[in-house]
């Protein structure tokens, strides 16, 4: 089934805006399904075939997680160079969603259309169906996006920096638990040396979309300064920022990541990523002045 949106002649800016909407809605749906999974576990004894319901939820949470990674990759890479591989990613999301939509139909037949042990929990299966099926329907428009995106293949569609928009030397990526120990002191020390740093608490304003501001920050910074720590490895959000920087390096062939180890040894970094472990990194155990000096050398200052 094709979607209804006509992408004929639209700009890359419009395409990226729609991809962000898909990405954000996918993330929201994942969060909603995760909450519904907890509710299902809590009411297991009052539900018909609770294992089937939980399997449905786990499948779609995992599926949407894969789509989310694809959308993040597209948002980082498309502004720099559109390739046939990117068109294939969009086509694959559409094809996959079209196939898996049948699972939603089956869920409706097995759970929505049948009497329940406890009709007071009707809302739960209704919400599960609505969240999973609505996303499958939203992905229909991807079929119309594919032909337009194909016309950009081989072009460097770098979006211009808006007039008056600041460029930064560094995008500071870190886990929130490391803000006081290393991230803020590092930001303040680098600023004192004349380095411009995209630091969330200094850049984000009331009402800003966090995801969109991060997308923008990754685009307008020369390097990503990534604080690798146990907290970093345990959280999804900073890892998505790192994924964006890795995708940028892959696309451009130029170094984009400056790692700082904080409370970790090489073995821990190696378990997370062999390529990261092999990079020359600053280490907070050496003291802040040493870390700053290494960053300044990397920046050519």
Structural class per helix/strand content? alpha/beta
The whole-angstrom Rg is 22 Å
The neighbouring-strand order within the major sheet is 2-1-3-4-5
> What is the residue-mean pLDDT, rounded to a whole number?
83
Strand content: 5-15%
Q: What would the principal axes of the Cα set say about the shape?
A: globular
> How many β strands by DSSP?
5
Between the first and last Cα atoms, what is the distance in angstroms? 55 Å
Q: Determine the number of helices (DSSP H or I, runs of at least 4 residues).
A: 13
Helix fraction, binned, reads: 55-70%
Largest sheet: 5 strands, parallel
Helix-strand pattern, N to C? HHHHHEHEHHEHHEHHEH
Layout of helices and strands, plus pairs?
Layout: H1 12-42, H2 50-77, H3 84-112, H4 122-138, H5 142-150, E1 168-173, H6 179-192, E2 197-198, H7 200-203, H8 210-220, E3 221-228, H9 230-234, H10 236-252, E4 257-261, H11 266-272, H12 274-277, E5 282-283, H13 288-298
Parallel strand pairs: 1-2, 1-3, 3-4, 4-5
Helix pairs in contact: 1-2, 1-4, 2-3, 2-10, 3-4, 3-5, 6-13
